[in-house]
Amino acid sequence: MEPIPISEVQFKQGAPKFPYKLVYPCFSGANKDLLYRLVADDRWAFYNNSNDTVLVVRATFGKDSQVKALSGTMLKQAGDNERLQAITSILPGCTELFVEGTINGFELEFISEAMEERSPHFENGTPSLPYNKIYRCFKQQQNGMLFRLVTLDKESSEQTWSFYNDTKQFNMEVEVTFEQPEHVRPLDETSVTTESEKGRACYKLVVPPLSTKPFAKGIMQNYSKSFVARPIGSARPDDAALPTFINGSPDTSIIAYPCTKVIRGFKNNGNGLVFVLVDENSHKWAVYNDTKDYRITVGAHFGPGAVYKPAKKVTVTEDPNVKGGTVCLIEVSPVTTELFITDGNPKDYRLSFSAEDADATTPEKNVSYENGRPDVNVMAEVDEVYKCFKDRGNGLMFRLVNKKRGQWAFYNDTKDATFTVKVTFEDSDSATPMGETKVVEDPAEGKVFLLDVPPLKTKLFACGKMSSYTMTFQGKRSATKVS
C-alpha cells in the first residue's frame, strides 16, 4: 500500500511513540485506520489505533534482507531457511518497535485477538476450573459461546489455558498454532501436530457442551487461533463419550470401567487401538491394549511438581526437555490391561504412543542364516537375534542384541539387497548412535536413527537403554550381486 499523507492520518488513541517519517495503513476499506506501519529510514514500528483489539504482525522478508529485531520482536528463519520472519504483538493504543536494517521485499500477515472480558455472561453453566482472565472466543455470537480461561504463574511467567463451552448443542473444536512450540506443553486431551515447513505446532482440542477442558501450559507468545462450533448430531466418531472395543475390554479387576476419562491413543487408526483409562475417584490410571497383533508402548510426560505413584511395571526417568519433569513408560501386550498410576491425579501431562508387531519382539531360538554369518569382529557377543522380515524367507536381515553392553547391530543375510534401518526412540537421549548410523531431525517424528546395511554386512547401530521405539525397514536391490 502507498503511504498516507501525514496530515490525513488520525491517531485515535494518542500519538505514536516513534519518530516516523512515513505512515502506511495495514488494512483497506472500513478497517484502514486499525493498524499503521511507521517507517523512519531503516527502522519500522507498528501503531495499534484500536481500543479493544490486540494485533499480531508476522512479516517475512526477502532472502537478501539484512534485519535485526527491535524491542520485543521475535526474529527467526522462515520455513524455507532462506528468509527471515519477524513477529510481534501490539496492544490497543500502543506502539511497538519492530525491525531495523536493509529490507529487500516483504510479506505481511495480521492476526487479531479480543481484549479480556471484564464481565462475562454465562447462559447455561459456569467454568469448573479457576482463571485470572477470560476471553470470548466467538465475539459476534450471543454471549461468546466458548471462553478461553487463563491463569498466570507470576514466578515462571507461564500461563495455563483452559476452554469452557457454555452451549448445550455444540461440540467446540479448538485449534491454536504456536510459533514457538518448544515453550508450550499440551494438557490432558490436547493433541499436537507439527507443521514441518514453518516450524510451528498446532494444538487441537474438542470441548463438549457445558464442559471445561485444560488445554496447554507455557510461555504463550505469537500464536493464532481458530474455533469451530459443530452441532452434536454431526460430531466425529472420536468425540463419543465411550469408545467401542473390538477385541476385548478393560480388565475391571485392575481399574473400574466405565471411568472418569478415556483417552484414545491412535485417534486416526480404527477405534484408537490403545486407551489410557483414568479413574479420578480412586486416583488410578491404567492402559488397555485392544489390539491382537501389537505391543504398544505408552509414554506420559509429567510437568514439574507432578505428584503420583507409578505402578511396578512402569519405568520412570527424568524428562531431558523439561526441568523437573518426568517420563513414565510402560509396554502393554495385546488385549491386556496394565496398571499405570496407583495413586495420583496429575493434570500437567503429555501422552505419546508407539506400536510394534508383537511377533517382532520375540527373539529367535534357532536362527537360520543362508548366505553368511554375522561378523564377530563387529559384535563378538550376541545375546538375542530378531528377524527383521518375519514373513520373508529366513528373515533376510537380523537385529543383533548384546544385552550386557546395551548394543544393537544389524546383519544383512542377502546377496543383492541393501536395507535401510529407521528407528525412532520414545526417549531419543537414551540411545547413542554407533558406527555409520546417522541421526536426523524430523519435524514430525523428532530424532530419527538411520543406517544402510549392504549385502552380507554387519553394522553397529546404537547403544543405550533402548526400551521404547518404532522401527521400520526398506530394501533396495543392489546393482551387483555379492558372491
Q: What are the defining features of this structure?
A:
single chain, 48% strand, five-stranded antiparallel β-sheet, Immunoglobulin-like, mainly beta, 483 residues
Tell me the strand percentage band: over 45%
Distance between the termini: 70 Å
| Gyration radius, rounded | 27 Å
| Contiguous helical run count | 0
- CATH fold topology of the largest domain: Immunoglobulin-like
Q: Strand order within the widest sheet? A: 1-2-3-8-5
What is the CATH class of the largest domain? Mainly Beta
- Low-pLDDT stretches are 234-241
Q: What's the CATH H-level homologous superfamily of the largest domain? A: Golgi alpha-mannosidase II
Q: State the major sheet.
A: 5 strands, antiparallel
Per DSSP E runs of 2 or more residues, the count of β-strands stands at 36
Helix coverage percent: under 10%
Overall morphology: globular
Task: Give the class from helix and strand content and strand pairing.
Answer: mainly beta
Question: How many domain modules?
Answer: 4
User: What CATH architecture of the largest domain do you see?
Assistant: Sandwich
What's the overall average pLDDT, rounded?
84
